[in-house]
Amino acid sequence: MIRKQLSLSYYAALPTPRYQITPEKRLMLAILQDAVTCLEKGLFRTSRRCSRSAFEAAQWIAERDRTWLFSFESICDNLNLDAETLRQQLLRKEWNGHVGERRSA
C-alpha cells in the first residue's frame, strides 16, 4: 500500500505567507516537518517495528521540556501552535503500538 506523505500543514495551521516568517521560525518549521516526515516514513512501514528516526522523533514530540530552544514545546510556543493538540495528532492511538517497539541496535 502506498501512502501519501503528509506535510506539517495537514496537522496544524501554519503562519502564512511564508516570506513574512523570520529565518529562525523557518528553521523551527523545518524541524517540525522533519519530525513529521520521520514519523510517517518509519511508522507506516508494513512491519510492526518503526525506524530509529521515527522512534527518536516520537520521543522528541512526547518530551515536555520548554527549557531547550528547539524542544517540541518551545518550537510550538514560538510558532503559536498548541503543542498538546499537535502532539496528540502526531502520536495518535494507531501509532502507539509502534512507538514502544524500538529497533534493536
Question: Beta-strand percentage?
Answer: under 5%
Low-confidence stretches: 1-5, 99-105
* Count of beta strands: 0
- pLDDT average, as an integer? 76
Main sheet specs: none
Gross geometry: globular
How many alpha or pi helices? 5
Approximate helicity band: 40-55%
Distance between the termini: 27 Å
Helix/strand structural class: mainly alpha
Following the backbone from N to C, one meets helices and strands in this order, namely: HHHHH
What would you report as the Rg, rounded to the nearest angstrom? 14 Å
Provide keyphrases for this structure:
105 residues; mainly alpha; 0% strand
Short description:
By secondary structure, this protein is mainly alpha-helical. Helix content is about 50%, strand content about 0%.
General description of the model:
Helices cover 51% and strands 0% of the residues. It contains 5 helices and no strands. The protein has helices at 23-43, 52-62, 72-78, 83-90, 93-99. It is globular. The relative contact order is 0.17.
What topology emerges from the helices and strands here?
Blueprint: H1 23-43, H2 52-62, H3 72-78, H4 83-90, H5 93-99
